[in-house]
Structures are given as C-alpha cells and as structure tokens.
Specification:
- By secondary structure, the chain is mainly beta.
- The protein has one domain: Lipocalin, CATH 2.40.128.
- Helices cover 13% and strands 39% of the residues.
- The N and C termini lie far apart (53 Å).
- Keywords: Signal.
- This is Lipoprotein.
- It comes from Alicycliphilus denitrificans.
Length: 169
C-alpha cells in the first residue's frame, strides 16, 4: 500500500507540473526570444499580392543555435529559428527556420514565412553563413511556396544568429 501511495503522489506531482508548464506556455526553450541583433529581409518579385516589402524594423527574436545529428540519412546540422521580423510600414511579420552543416559556409535548408505564406528552395548553395559577423546573408534568392501553388518571392537581406554557438556552428 505504501508503494502505491508513493507512486500515486509521483504521478500527481508530474501531472501538476506538466499542467503548470503548459498553462504558462513554459517548458519549451525552442521559441525565439528577444535578441539585441538586427536583421532585415527585402521581398521583391512576389507572385502573391501584398508580400513585397521590407521586413525588419528592429531587433530579431532568435533561438539558440543547436547542433542536431538525427538518425537516418538526414545529415548533422546547426539549426535555429527566428521571428519578430516586422513588416515596415505595414502589418504582419516574417519568421523562419535555418539549417546549415557544421563548418559549412552555405545554408543546407531553410524555410521563410512572409505573412503566413511559407517558402523554401531546393538549392541553398548561394546563401552564405557568415560566422564572423553572426549572420546568414541572402542576395536575390528565389524561393518557392511549400503549398504547391508555385508562388515565388525573391529575398535579399540578413538574418542574425546568436554568437554562442556549438563547435562548428
């Protein structure tokens, strides 16, 4: 009976902790948090009305850069997310997820969202990871919508990354 009581108490405490963390939105350190780093993205040539413009009116929210080595054929990558890149002179914002190989100078894979439209590319070899300035730099990069619509945007700009990165990142 004593073991049953201890187990019941442990389960109750675990459930209460989970409930408290979910109630306050806590427990997830994967959400971007404010940084003191500036970033700006300029969208041109959008085939979706209203996406063209400048995104970046202040500091960018960032996650830490994490090194992930998944099981299977997906390679080891350094990954981080960003948000809070507000549209200048309009409503909405840009956010995204950027992944690059350790010790590589180009992006491996990335997803950018502008006003709720997500975009990606098959080839990222022309998008630079510039570690010495803690930035990812895009110059006239054409991205295609992930929803299969064929929508396109051309993006130029910089996305900052936190300087405290794992080795190789």
């Amino acid at each position: 009976m004593n073991a049953f009581l201890r187990t019941s108490c442990a389960v109750t405490v675990a459930a209460a902790t989970a409930l408290l963390l979910s109630a306050c939105g806590g427990g997830n350190d994967d959400d971007p948090t404010p940084s003191d780093q500036l970033g700006v993205l300029t969208v041109t040539g959008a085939t979706v009305e209203g996406l063209n413009g400048i995104y970046g009116d202040g500091n960018v929210n960032l996650t830490d850069v994490d090194k992930k080595n998944p099981i299977g054929s997906y390679p080891e990558v350094c990954t981080f997310r960003f948000d809070g890149v507000n549209r200048v002179g309009g409503s909405g914002q840009a956010f995204g997820d950027i992944r690059y190989r350790p010790d590589a100078s180009v992006v491996y894979e990335a997803f950018f969202t502008f006003l709720d439209h997500e975009f990606r590319a098959d080839d990222w070899s022309d998008v630079a990871v510039v570690r010495d300035t803690d930035r990812v730099r895009l110059v006239n990069k054409t991205l295609v919508a992930t929803d299969g619509s064929g929508a396109r945007v051309t993006v130029s700009g910089v996305v900052p990354m936190r300087p405290n990165r794992p080795s190789g990142c």
